[in-house]
């Protein structure tokens, strides 16, 4: 998405305004690039995470999420992460704007209470927790009522 819009940094001595953190399985998330990111952050680059998920499901099982990667980079560098995706309200408002729908007339389907469901509920959307990912029914039941999903589905086939 950023190709042609930014100048990519390849070395720790290159000038850098921001480090963008994505999923750890990304081909760019090598040990050397993570080390370079930490150095650039210590030099003053901003830390931008594409979302705040701690973990996420993949075909291999649970993986470290971008939020976990940002926590590691933040701890090592002292940088405070800024998140541009879930659960940030502007992400959900932008989504609704692009779809031409109002949040209060939208149901978001998600598998993570912390990012998907919390973000949706935070902007007035209804939310359905799909039990194919990170969160469980027990996790949802432990939330205060206004933070709980409106629906719980075993899989997307129930939609």
**Approximately how much helix is present in the residues?**
25-40%
The residue ranges in which pLDDT falls below 50 over 5 or more consecutive positions are none
Please provide the count of β strands.
8
Secondary structure class reads alpha/beta
Number of helices: 5
Characteristic key phrases:
single chain, 159 residues, alpha/beta, 5 helices, 19% strand, elongated
Describe the structure.
The chain has 159 residues and is α/β, with parallel strands linked by helices. 31% of the residues lie in helices and 19% in strands. It is built from five helices and eight strands, in the order βαβββαβαβαβαβ. It has helices at 31-42, 66-77, 89-99, 113-122, 137-141; strands at 18-21, 46-49, 55-58, 61-64, 81-83, 107-110, 126-130, 151-153. Strand 3 (55-58) and strand 4 form a beta hairpin. The longest helix has 12 residues, at 31-42. The chain is elongated, with a radius of gyration of 17 Å. The two termini are 30 Å apart. The model has no long low-confidence stretch (mean pLDDT 94).
């Amino acid at each position: 998405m950023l190709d042609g819009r930014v100048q990519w940094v390849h070395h720790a001595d290159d000038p850098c305004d921001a480090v963008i953190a994505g999923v750890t399985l990304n081909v760019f998330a090598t040990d050397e690039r993570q080390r370079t990111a930490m150095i650039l952050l210590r030099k003053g680059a901003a830390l931008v995470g594409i979302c705040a998920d701690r973990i996420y499901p993949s075909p291999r099982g649970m993986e470290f999420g971008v939020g976990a990667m940002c926590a590691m980079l933040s701890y090592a560098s002292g940088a405070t992460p800024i998140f541009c995706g879930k659960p940030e309200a502007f992400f959900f408002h932008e989504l609704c704007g692009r779809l031409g729908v109002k949040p209060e007339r939208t149901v978001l389907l998600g598998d993570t209470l912390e990012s998907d469901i919390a973000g949706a509920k935070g902007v007035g959307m209804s939310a359905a927790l799909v039990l194919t990912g990170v969160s469980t029914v027990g996790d949802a039941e432990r939330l205060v009522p206004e933070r709980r999903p409106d629906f719980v589905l075993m899989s997307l086939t129930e939609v």
